[in-house]
C-alpha cells in the first residue's frame, strides 16, 4: 500500500501567542503582534518595528546549560517541538530511533548570535582579523545551522535522517514537504518537522533596510503589516517557530492517534529570474501549486482555503495573486485567501511552518483567520482576502504557498485524506 | 529507478576542474598553505586548503560576481563544469533540471565585510547584496538563475555530509517528476577570519603548522583536521533518461542513508556511521564483498578515527581498501563530502585508488592506501561522512559496467 504522511501534533511559538491555543486565539481575533523593536535599540534604522515573541526560556523548562548552547531560534524550536510531541500523544512509542527523523528549516540560522559576537570580537568593526580570544564557547554552533535539527533530534530521541533545510523564506514549507516525502518513501516512520527563526538583529534589519523590503511605518506598528492593502509598504520582520509531527498514516491510525490532516502534496520551483525580483505572471509559483495538487490527486476546485505568502510587498502581493489565479482559474475568486503575516509578521524561514500550523488549526476549527489591516484593497489584488475579521468556513483541502529570495516558490497541500 | 551521475565539476585546493583535482589526488599532493593574516594575530589554526589563484571574473559574469560570496562562486563554476560535462540541454525544458547545493556556513567573507560596514560605519552602510549573498541559499539561487533552471530547488545545511544527503534527496525529486538535478556542496570560510575565530573553541581543527603532519588521520599524531574550501557538483538523472539522450554515465548512485549520532561533532555516539553505512549498502543491494574501496571520513581526531576504524572492521571483516585523499587538502565543510563523492566517481572511472597523503604507513590494522595510488578492479565505492552537527551519511557509488 502507498505510504502517506499525516500530521498528528502541532506546536508553535509565535509573536503574540506561545502554544497553539494562544496562537489561534490571537489569529482568529485578528490581533496584531507587530510593535516597536525591543530586542535591540533600532535608532538609526529605516524599519524599527517587528513582531517579537515575549519569551522566557526558563518558563518553558529550558535550563541555563541549554540556553547557553542554544541560540534563540533553537530555543523556540525546542518549545514548539515539545508541544507538538505532547499534542501528538506518544508517536515514538515502539518506533526504533533509526526510523525517526527530523527536518527543520531556517533561513538565517544563528546570525543574530554571530552579529553580536562579531561586534565584540572586531571591536565595533575596527579589526578585520577579529580577536579570537573574545569568542564565546558555543559560537561555532551559531555558524552552522545544522545545530537546529541536531538539538531537536536530541530532544525527541531521533537517530534517523536529520536535516536542516535552508531555502530562505520557503524553508518552513520545504522542511515539511521533504519530511512528508521521507515518510512516503519509507526513509522514516516519524519525522518531526518544522522551522525556526530569530532574525530581529541589527544585521538582518540593516540587510532589509538596504533594499527597502521592510515597512517603515514606525509610527503605527500595529497596523504596519498590510498585505494586499493599497497602502502597504513592505513586510514587518517576525520571529518564532512551529513544529509538526508527521507519521506514516497507517501506523498513526493503528496507535489511535488523532490524525489532524494529511500532507498530501508538495512542490517547489526556482523562478530562475532574480534573487529578489518576481515576474508579475507568477508562472513558477502556479506550476508549484499545480504540481502539489497533482501529487495530492486534487483538482483546483477542491481547494477550500489558500494560506497566502502575503508578505505585504507590492511585487509579492501582485505576483502571488496572479499565480493563484493562474493555478486555480475561476475558482481562485471563490476561495478565501489570507495572510497571517498581517498579524505575526514575516519570520523568514520559520513562517512557512507557522502558517502550516495555522492551516491545520483552520481545518480543526472550521475558521479561517483574517488578513488584518486590510482596509483599502489594492485594485490589482482582487481575490477574497477575508479582511480584518475571521470567518467561519469549513476547510477540507488547504493550499499554502511561499515565495523567497533565490527565486524559490513552494506549495503545500493539506487535506483530510482520501 | 536507477539514479546516475552524468556530469561532474569541482573547484578544489588543486584548482578549477576535475582534471586538476584528479591529477593532485593520484599524486597525493600536499595542498595545505598558511591562511593569510591570522597567524600574526596569534590564531592557533594557521593552515588551510585554499583554492589557489581563483579569479571569479575569469569564470563568472561580473554582475554575478559582485553580488555573491566565494562559496557561491565555487558552486557556480563547479555547476558550469558539471552541466557542460553532462551535455544536458537545459534550455529545452527549464523545469526539467533542479538545483540542490548544500552549504555549511554561508557567505562568510561577504558577510564579514558587511558586518564591518554595519558596526564600523552604521546600518545605512550595509549594501543591498548582503541579503542575498550571506544566506545559505545563495548558491542554489544563483546557480538556478544563471543557468535558467526551474526544477525543484533546495538547500540542505547538514555540514560535511550535505552532498551525500542531497543525492538522497534528489532521488525523492526524481521520483516526483524533476528529471534531473544539479547537486552539490560548497563552502568557503577561510577568507573570513571571523568565521575561523568562531570555530576555534570547537576543538576539532588542527593547530599544526607543518603541512606534512597537520592533518594525519588514523595516525598516533592525529590532532584534528585542517579546514579547506571548495565545491563539487554532480548532475544526476534517471538512468533511462540518460540512456535516451545517449549520455555518458559516470557512476551509478546506488544507495544512500543517513543517521544522527547525538549532539556534538562526528557521531559522538559512535554507532551512527556504522548504521548509515549498513543501511546504504542494503539499499544499494551490495554486501561487503561487493565494495572495493571506501572513501573514509577521516576526521583526524583520535576518537572519531577509532570509531571509524571499528565501523569499517564490522562492515568488512575480510578487509577493504580504504583511502582519505582529503588528508592532502583538508576538509571543506559542505564541500568535503562533495569532493569525496567526486573523488570516488573519478576513482571508479580510472580504476585507481588515490592514496592518503601524510600518512606514511597503514595504521591500526587498516588497509589504508598510502604513499602511492593503487590500481585495482573497482566495482563499488562507499563514501562515509560525518558532520560537526552530529549527522552521519553513507553513499554507495557503482561503476556503470558493474550494476
From TrEMBL, chain A:
<comment type="similarity">
    <text>Belongs to the thiolase-like superfamily. Beta-ketoacyl-ACP synthases family.</text>
</comment>
<dbReference type="Pfam" id="PF00109">
    <property type="entry name" value="ketoacyl-synt"/>
</dbReference>
<dbReference type="InterPro" id="IPR018201">
    <property type="entry name" value="Ketoacyl_synth_AS"/>
</dbReference>
<dbReference type="Pfam" id="PF02801">
    <property type="entry name" value="Ketoacyl-synt_C"/>
</dbReference>
<dbReference type="InterPro" id="IPR014031">
    <property type="entry name" value="Ketoacyl_synth_C"/>
</dbReference>
<dbReference type="InterPro" id="IPR000794">
    <property type="entry name" value="Beta-ketoacyl_synthase"/>
</dbReference>
<feature type="domain" description="Ketosynthase family 3 (KS3)">
    <location>
        <begin position="2"/>
        <end position="416"/>
    </location>
</feature>
<dbReference type="InterPro" id="IPR020841">
    <property type="entry name" value="PKS_Beta-ketoAc_synthase_dom"/>
</dbReference>
<protein>
    <submittedName>
        <fullName>Beta-ketoacyl-[acyl-carrier-protein] synthase family protein</fullName>
    </submittedName>
</protein>
<dbReference type="InterPro" id="IPR016039">
    <property type="entry name" value="Thiolase-like"/>
</dbReference>
<keyword id="KW-0808">Transferase</keyword>
<dbReference type="InterPro" id="IPR014030">
    <property type="entry name" value="Ketoacyl_synth_N"/>
</dbReference>
Automatic annotation (TrEMBL), chain B:
<keyword id="KW-0808">Transferase</keyword>
<dbReference type="InterPro" id="IPR014030">
    <property type="entry name" value="Ketoacyl_synth_N"/>
</dbReference>
<dbReference type="InterPro" id="IPR016039">
    <property type="entry name" value="Thiolase-like"/>
</dbReference>
<dbReference type="Pfam" id="PF02801">
    <property type="entry name" value="Ketoacyl-synt_C"/>
</dbReference>
<protein>
    <submittedName>
        <fullName>Beta-ketoacyl synthase N-terminal-like domain-containing protein</fullName>
    </submittedName>
</protein>
<dbReference type="InterPro" id="IPR014031">
    <property type="entry name" value="Ketoacyl_synth_C"/>
</dbReference>
<comment type="similarity">
    <text>Belongs to the thiolase-like superfamily. Beta-ketoacyl-ACP synthases family.</text>
</comment>
<dbReference type="InterPro" id="IPR020841">
    <property type="entry name" value="PKS_Beta-ketoAc_synthase_dom"/>
</dbReference>
<dbReference type="Pfam" id="PF00109">
    <property type="entry name" value="ketoacyl-synt"/>
</dbReference>
<feature type="domain" description="Ketosynthase family 3 (KS3)">
    <location>
        <begin position="1"/>
        <end position="399"/>
    </location>
</feature>
<dbReference type="InterPro" id="IPR000794">
    <property type="entry name" value="Beta-ketoacyl_synthase"/>
</dbReference>
<keyword id="KW-0012">Acyltransferase</keyword>
Amino acid at each position: 500500500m502507498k505510504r502517506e504522511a499525516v500530521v498528528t501534533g502541532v506546536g508553535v511559538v509565535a509573536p503574540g501567542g506561545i502554544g497553539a491555543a494562544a496562537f489561534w486565539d490571537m489569529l482568529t481575533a485578528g490581533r496584531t503582534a507587530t510593535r516597536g523593536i525591543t530586542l535591540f535599540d533600532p535608532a538609526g534604522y529605516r524599519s524599527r518595528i517587528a513582531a517579537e515573541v515575549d519569551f522566557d526560556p526558563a518558563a518553558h523548562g529550558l535550563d541555563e546549560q541549554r540556553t547557553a548552547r542554544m541560540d534563540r531560534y533553537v530555543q523556540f524550536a525546542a518549545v514548539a517541538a515539545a508541544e507538538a510531541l505532547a499534542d501528538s500523544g506518544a508517536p515514538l512509542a515502539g518506533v526504533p530511533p533509526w526510523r525517526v527523523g527530523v527536518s527543520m528549516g531556517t533561513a538565517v540560522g544563528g546570525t543574530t548570535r554571530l552579529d553580536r559576537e562579531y561586534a565584540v570580537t572586531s571591536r565595533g568593526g575596527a579589526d578585520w582579523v577579529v580577536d579570537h580570544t573574545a569568542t564565546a564557547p558555543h559560537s561555532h554552533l551559531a555558524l552552522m545551522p545544522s545545530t537546529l535539527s541536531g538539538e531537536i533530534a536530541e530532544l525527541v530521541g531521533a537517530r534517523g535522517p536529520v536535516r536542516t533545510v535552508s531555502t530562505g523564506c520557503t524553508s518552513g514549507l520545504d522542511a515539511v514537504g521533504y519530511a512528508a516525502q521521507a515518510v512516503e518513501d519509507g526513509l522514516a516512520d516519524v519525522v518531526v518537522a518544522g522551522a525556526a527563526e530569530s532574525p530581529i538583529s541589527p544585521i538582518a534589519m540593516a540587510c532589509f533596510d538596504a533594499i527597502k523590503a521592510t515597512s517603515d511605518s514606525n509610527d503605527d506598528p500595529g497596523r504596519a503589516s498590510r498585505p494586499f492593502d493599497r497602502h502597504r509598504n513592505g513586510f514587518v520582520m517576525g520571529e518564532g517557530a512551529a513544529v509538526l509531527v508527521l507519521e506514516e498514516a497507517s501506523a498513526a491510525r493503528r496507535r489511535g492517534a488523532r490524525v489532524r490532516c494529511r500532507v498530501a502534496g508538495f512542490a517547489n520551483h526556482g523562478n530562475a529570474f532574480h534573487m529578489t525580483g518576481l515576474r508579475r505572471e507568477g508562472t513558477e509559483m502556479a506550476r508549484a501549486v499545480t504540481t502539489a495538487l497533482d501529487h495530492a490527486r486534487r483538482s483546483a476546485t477542491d481547494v477550500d482555503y489558500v494560506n497566502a505568502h502575503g508578505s505585504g510587498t507590492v511585487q509579492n502581493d501582485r505576483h502571488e495573486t496572479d499565480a493563484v489565479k493562474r493555478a486555480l482559474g475561476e475558482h481562485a475568486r471563490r476561495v478565501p485567501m489570507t495572510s497571517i503575516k498581517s498579524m505575526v509578521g514575516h519570520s523568514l524561514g520559520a513562517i512557512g511552518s507557522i502558517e502550516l500550523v495555522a492551516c491545520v488549526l483552520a481545518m480543526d476549527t472550521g475558521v479561517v483567520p483574517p488578513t488584518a489591516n486590510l482596509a483599502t484593497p489594492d485594485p490589482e489584488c482582487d481575490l477574497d482576502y477575508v479582511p480584518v475579521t475571521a470567518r467561519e468556513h469549513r476547510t477540507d483541502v488547504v493550499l499554502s504557498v511561499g515565495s523567497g529570495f533565490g527565486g524559490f516558490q513552494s506549495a503545500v497541500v493539506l487535506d483530510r485524506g482520501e | 529507478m536507477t539514479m546516475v551521475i552524468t556530469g561532474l565539476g569541482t573547484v578544489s585546493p588543486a584548482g578549477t576542474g576535475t582534471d586538476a583535482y584528479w591529477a593532485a589526488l593520484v599524486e597525493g599532493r600536499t595542498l595545505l598553505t598558511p591562511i593569510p593574516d591570522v597567524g600574526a594575530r596569534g590564531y592557533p589554526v594557521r593552515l588551510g586548503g585554499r583554492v589557489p589563484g581563483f579569479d571569479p571574473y575569469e569564470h563568472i559574469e561580473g554582475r554575478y560576481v559582485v553580488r555573491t560570496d566565494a562559496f557561491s562562486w565555487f558552486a557556480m563554476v563547479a555547476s558550469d563544469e558539471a552541466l557542460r560535462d553532462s551535455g544536458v540541454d537545459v534550455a529545452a525544458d527549464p523545469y526539467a533540471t533542479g538545483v540542490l547545493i548544500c552549504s555549511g556556513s554561508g557567505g562568510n567573507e561577504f558577510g564579514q565585510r558587511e558586518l564591518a560596514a554595519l558596526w564600523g560605519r552604521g546600518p545605512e552602510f550595509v549594501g543591498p547584496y548582503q541579503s542575498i549573498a550571506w544566506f545559505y541559499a545563495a548558491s542554489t539561487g544563483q546557480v538556478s538563475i544563471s543557468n535558467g533552471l526551474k526544477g525543484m530547488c533546495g538547500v540542505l545545511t547538514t555540514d560535511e555530509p550535505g552532498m551525500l544527503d542531497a543525492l538522497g534527496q534528489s532521488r525523492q525529486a526524481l521520483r516526483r517528476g524533476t528529471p534531473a538535478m544539479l547537486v552539490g556542496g560548497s563552502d568557503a570560510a577561510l577568507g573570513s577570519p571571523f568565521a575561523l575565530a568562531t570555530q576555534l573553541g570547537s576543538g576539532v581543527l588542527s593547530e599544526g603548522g607543518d603541512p606534512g603532519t597537520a592533518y594525519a588521520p588514523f595516525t598516533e599524531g592525529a590532532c584534528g583536521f585542517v579546514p579547506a574550501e571548495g565545491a563539487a557538483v554532480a548532475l544526476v538523472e534517471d538512468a533511462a533518461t540518460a540512456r535516451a539522450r545517449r549520455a555518458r554515465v559516470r557512476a551509478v548512485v546506488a544507495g544512500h542513508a543517513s543517521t544522527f549520532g547525538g549532539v556534538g561533532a562526528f557521531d559522538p555516539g559512535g554507532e551512527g556511521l556504522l548504521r548509515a553505512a549498513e543501511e546504504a549498502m542494503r539499499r544499494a543491494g551490495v554486501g561487503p564483498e561487493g565494495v572495493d574501496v571506501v572513501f573514509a571520513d577521516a576526521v583526524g581526531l583520535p576518537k572519531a578515527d577509532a570509531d571509524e576504524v571499528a565501523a569499517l572492521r564490522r562492515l568488512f571483516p575480510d578487509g577493504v581498501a580504504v583511502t582519505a585523499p582529503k588528508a592532502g587538502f583538508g576538509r571543506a565543510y559542505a564541500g568535503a563530502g562533495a569532493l569525496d563523492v567526486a573523488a570516488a566517481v573519478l576513482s571508479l572511472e580510472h580504476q585507481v585508488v588515490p592514496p592518503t597523503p601524510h600518512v606514511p604507513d597503514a595504521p591500526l590494522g587498516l588497509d589504508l592506501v598510502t604513499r602511492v595510488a593503487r590500481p585495482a578492479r573497482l566495482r563499488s565505492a562507499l563514501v562515509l561522512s560525518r558532520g560537526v552537527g552530529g549527522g552521519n551519511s553513507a553513499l554507495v557509488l557503482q561503476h556503470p559496467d558493474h550494476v
